[in-house]
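User: I'm preparing a small set of examples for a lab meeting where we compare how different chains pack in three dimensions. I only have the primary sequence for this one, and I'd like the structure in token form so I can line it up with the others. Please keep the answer compact; I'll paste it straight into my notes.
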Amino acid sequence: MSYVKLGLKQSAESLAEAGAALKVAADLDTTESSLLQFVQHWRLWPLLMEGLCYLQMDSVDNASRIAGEIGAMDLYPPERRWHHYLTGLIELGKKNGAKAIEDLKQALSLEPHQWLTEASNEAFFMEALARAYFQSGDLEDARKKYEEITRLTTGRLRYGDIYARSFYQLAKIAESQKDSVRARENYRKFLELWKDADPGLPEVEDAKRRMAAIAS
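Assistant: Understood. Below is the structure token output for the 216-residue chain.
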């Protein structure tokens, strides 16, 4: 729920849901040492969501505090990716594009590649890196990374919203590169995926407007 609310730009509601999840994790029985790592794992996601909420609220100090909490946890090496992810987005918010890209590349490198037994988080990490490229003006690397997302299999199963929005971003990049054919095709794919979306979503309305402008 925290993730959904964040996507709808409902920062306060998202923060409340993340706090509720953290409370559940805190209430778990950790008297057995074998359970301690398990509980820490389940604190990671709501902590990350808190950090992302603060970034959406333009509260960089609070986001940095959360990143510090994650960084101080006794994590397995691959789980350090959550720390790199949040610090990368904090740097992006500070307009430090090169450092953001460095951290987000590190985060993605630690994500297991399209697990066979369950869906992975690759789309989640790839989207942040693609966004960093885009906001830094590197449209070509942004295009490549968004295209990678559209080719994922199990790596996108948890993130249908990211998968759909990747076509929207690819269309905007194509427009910037003066490729109206590619832009129109990607807007079409995006709108087909989200044809039943809730009314008023800004990306949907913008895609319809842009596609109509290309057609005219």
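A couple of notes for your slides: The chain is about 75% helix and 0% strand. The mean pLDDT is 92.

User: Perfect, thanks.
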